[in-house]
Amino acid sequence: MSQVRVVSIGIILLSLLAAGAITARRVAVERANRSVEIVVEWDEIRELALATRGDSRAATPAALLRHLRETHQVRGLAVSEMTLAELRDVGEVFLSHELPVGFADSTPARSGVAPLYLIIPDARLADQILRHVAERRSSAYLTPVPSSQARGSGPVVLRLNTRYDLIKSATIGFPTEAIQAAAEAGVEVIARFGGFTGLTEGSVDAITAYLRELGIQNVIFSGTEVLGNKKLIPYVAESLLRHQIRYGFLEFGKQQGDAALARLMRGQLIRVHSITGAEMAQITPADATERFVKAARERNIRLLYLRFFTRPADNLVDENGRYLSAIGRNLHRVGLTIGQASPFSALYAGRPLLILTGAGVIAGGVLLLALALGLAARTQWLLLILGISGSSLLLAIDPTLTLARKALALLAALVFPTLAFLRWGNPKPSGGREPAGQTRPDLSVSPLRALGPMLAMTATTLAGALLIVGLLGDTRFLLKYDQFVGIKAAHLLPLLALGAILVGGLFTPANDWKSRRAGVAANLRALLAEPVRVWQIVAIGAAVLLLLILLLRTGNEPGVGVSGLELKLRSLMDRVLFVRPRTKEFLIGHPAMVIALWAALAGWRPVWAPALLIGGIGQVSVLNTFCHIHTPFLVSLLRTTNGLVLGIVLGLAVITIAQRLWVSNSKGLPVKAPAQKGSGPE
Q1: Among candidate residues 308, 295, 253, the one with its CA nearest the CA of residue 47
Q2: Residue 58 DSSP symbol
């Protein structure tokens, strides 16, 4: 082994120690935050109380809320701000061109336009409307009309000094009834409101001061964008932090400006998962329970925003009580507790650890190029020194830090699975080379011999995964307002590289670049000289289709749906194995890789090459699992372990069954031509 290769391996080992230290910090941060908060909506609480008013537990909204807190540990009440239009719809304010008796408006009317008045029976509500319209819009929009009656003995009348359609969407604070019900029940209020036209820094301060005045600590914005999008987002973040208000960062429900606001909140945010009203009409309580529990366990969601089931039932309170109980029971089963949500502690990797981790990625890349291209030692030294110097510089300065982390993480995702394929994908048959004249594969080879290269290959892939975890060990990636870039490329390119390795005959070692180039050229000429058969065209088409499906099914929001049967299988495996393995790992990739490695040891070239290509899916999937930094590290590790064990067992079982069937078949194996040098197992 050359000196540069020894140094490269040494750098990788040191970088794994650095990445391991960062990962240990991350695990500690994840394990310290196990409390999940259950939140319900005020509008649904009020509707459920009205629908079941014969039930003493729901005699009033406050009573129902208290029952849910005491029995099912509901800790939060999401309350949306009111608008003038909503108040008019429910009859709490009235519009009129006529003044009630006892009121006199001395303001001259505009020519040809009859004045319009807001008539408000509740004086406290009138004060609330005046305050919030003045603070958020303009004090000139509404003018109190004098009354000859004593205050409190009749309605309050406000003159509109602008068109009603320009002010009807104005938010005027939270319903007093909701705030009082939350206080009586002992739950916290989660504020819900959106932005509006004409938002200023002053109105932002007025809103956050109002929230703090009510003791509100968490806000979830409604609508399609966050407050202040786009220009006022920095000021909104500063105002929220100044008033000690946390941002509820919605998962899946994309809002414009959410990631930008999250980046400025200095970790003072809580990830939120909810099921929309439209989905609630279709989903079952069991499926909704599984979805919420999985979000909390597998994606660090700490606030569950629940909606009730309102379909006909004998007792809606009991029906939804069973639903809440199931969520609580399953959260406890997976090691989480129900309580008040809090932000994760800051996760930060120091620059020295990051720089050392990045050096390991560069060293892995140099090893890969040396094996694939037969680079001279001098060239390897040059690449190693320049690569580590460049990555260290980019990681050391703030302007390029995040970009460098993402770029190196993507490079690791491409390098290490490919290195694993090239180094371990072609184990030698017994004796190192097939005996002269041997035309039959040796099916008597024990399938257990494939375990060594299989575990070594997976360990190499996991080394790259650990480096990615180290590089992205930061709060921004943990909370997913920043994330690994290039998921689909990390799936596709290593598999394409494996195909190139097979076509170019790169499994055969090369002493230098010149001999490598000559060998690749010879393999390509031989390949192009071969006639194209129909089955080969069909096989290529099937491979392209498989790759397309693989890419479309990546991520939390895949482009291809999952069948009902697969969903049931996933649910079963979640219950049995605690964390289900990925289907493409335990059912496709890992068994195929075990078969490929065994076929290489047996000298069975026609089986080895296609099985190796299919088996590569498992390795890229293993690495991809750890690219989702918002998933707890130990969950990813358990998922990978489950998939690896099941996949290996399945692969060994397939080989063992095939061996037994073949032994019982008196026809024996068909004769195969000897493998060409450089294009298959030797």
Answers
A1: 308
A2: G
